[in-house]
Amino acid sequence: MLLAAQHGCASIDIDRAAVRPVSHAISQDTPSQLQKLAHKPGPARPKESSFVLLDAGLDALAARLWLAEKAEKTLDVQYYIFHGDKTGALVAEALLKAADRGVRVRVLLDDIYTHRNEADIMALYSHPNIEIRLFNPFFYRGGNPLLQLGQYLRDDRLNRRMHNKLFAADNQFAITGGRNIGDEYFVAHDEFSFVDLDVLASGPAVAELSDTFDAYWASDGVVPARALPGYKEARNRLAALKTALQARKTELEQTDYGRELESLRFEERLLSGELPAYPGTAGVLADPPEKVEGNSHASELLVGQLSGLGADAKREAIVISPYFVPGKMGLDWMGYMRARGAKVRVLTNSLAASDVPVVHAGYAKYRKALLQMGVELHELKPLFNAAPRKTRIIGSGSSRSSLHTKSLVFDREKVFIGSFNFDPRSAWLNTELGLVIESRPAAEKVAELADRAMAPDFSHRLSLKQAGEQTAIVWSSRNARGEFVTETEPDTGWWKRRWVDFLMLLPLEAHL
């Protein structure tokens, strides 16, 4: 604090950061509208929950808005990214409206991108029913650039983030999966969208998800937003923020997107069964918040819990991961399943579809080894003008789409849906969250979505071609002119391919 003051650098108020009132999720027995609608397990299956797959971006947004509208007691919201764009403003307005009704709103955000919306965050915090906390915060917020640069260079700050996604209402319904809050996750972006998957859970599984939220909320790695510099001044902006959010909502409602969102009739479709709810049991897999300190044992981490699931697969394992860098541990895991006779299929992004080329470089190192052990590799195309918003592939199509779904399916009987990418960053650096659902109908549905995405109209299938002593990778697919085969990364330019070749030479894998 003294050093920051000497250099004129705004920083988090340590005294305010230390004041963190204790709070917990309410009991699932608390009466509310959502409690009446929630799944009630029978005496024969006391741990049974129900699960609605949100594979379309509009449904995923509508589900969150529905929970915010119906909540009477609590809303617990936990995200890595919460943009201030069209859909971000819509969700923020719904949270604010719930708080005005007397709902306790707890918002937990990773601090990596909050500087973009600091003033609005602090204004929201000034509402008596809203509390916002930041995970693993950057303490210097402005002023001296050397102090800021110094903290960004610290591995425990910049490189260890909370990647969890959770939206829970009245401890009765909860959404978890791959989506953050922002236009690209809800097919509202004008140029780009993510193909993604969430699950809306109801029943005993929700209480377990709420427990993970409480653990993060109370952890030593968070600070309340009131500790941010300028908090006192920001409190005067709440009324103006309410007006601005309402105006943005009204503006969005007048667009084609807003009218399509309004026409979804989410609650009606949910209660009528048009949106199927699959029964099953679930286990919550969650990293401890202390993972960012870098001293957790593998058995305590989500990756350790997840690795044991493949041991049960007898026939098939499907891995869906946008950022796929298996490493030695992943190779051994898939090699073990192949040795037992199980088919292993992987869906990830092609270089043309990837939004992070450096991660693609990490993946490219492993392609030949995976193919040689008999793993099927499928790379999703960018899907230019592929589908309208309501068409499901593993999510909604858009003018340009990139895979963002994180899921694993075992024998079409068990499915993991969460925030975990199959890469070293999710395994060892970021904290992650997800559900392992034991439900044949739910697992089969996700497998069907994967089957469709892996079809040659939407993905390239990779294979090996022997040319003398050299082994080359071949991409097979289909376009408007028919089947085609190429030995060059499809739909990419020479410079992009050379850039990936260069990145493959760098020792970056531990950070991917």
Structure description:
The structure is a single chain. The chain is α+β, with helices and mostly antiparallel strands. The chain folds into two domains: 47-272, Endonuclease Chain A (Endonuclease, Chain A, 2-Layer Sandwich), CATH 3.30.870; 297-511, Endonuclease, Chain A, CATH 3.30.870.10. It is built from 20 helices and 22 strands. Helix 5 (86-100) crosses helix 11 (238-253) and helix 16 (357-364) packs across helix 20. The protein starts with a helix and ends in a 9-residue tail after the last helix. Residues 1-8 and 394-398 have low confidence and may be disordered.
Main β-sheet description: 18 strands, mixed
What integer value in Å does the Rg equal?
Answer: 23 Å
CATH topology of the largest domain: the name is Endonuclease, Chain A
- Overall helicity: 25-40%
What's the total helix number?
A: 20
Structural class, judged by helices and strands? alpha+beta
What's the level 1 CATH class of the largest domain?
Alpha Beta
| Mean pLDDT metric | 89
Beta fraction of the residues?
15-25%
Unreliable runs: 1-8, 394-398
Number of domains: 2
- The coarse silhouette is globular
Number of strands: 22
CATH superfamily of the largest domain: Endonuclease Chain A
- Which CATH architecture of the largest domain? 2-Layer Sandwich
Oligomer: single chain
Distance between the termini: 33 Å
In short:
By secondary structure, the protein is of the alpha+beta class. The chain is built from 20 helices and 22 strands.
